[in-house]
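Weekly puzzle thread! Below is a chain. First person to post its structure in token form gets bragging rights.
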Amino acid sequence: MEIVTIEKRTFLYVCERFIEFTKRIESLCNTHVQKVENWLDSQEVCLLLGFSKRTLQYYRSSGKLPYSQIGNKIYYKPADIEKVIADSKIQNQSSKQIMPYEKS
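Winning reply:
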């Protein structure tokens, strides 16, 4: 075993530099961390939208619903699910006026 002695001033300088180094590393890591959303799996999406597994497959195959796959498991972003819902809304046609029924 070898023992090395250094001056207190040198030791404090090395400790200071090490703390500075760790702060830089943490800063770099924090700037490159992406926000992770709560992704939904196929079962959750089927329950949420009232879809069958086959309908969900159709939406994936037709490109209407983006997805990511890890192994055999498929995941969906909540924002993409919301977009499918928004695109599926039936828009009211205000240009057509409903005329009351009149007996002639």
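Puzzle host: Confirmed. Bonus trivia for everyone else. The chain has a mean pLDDT of 83.
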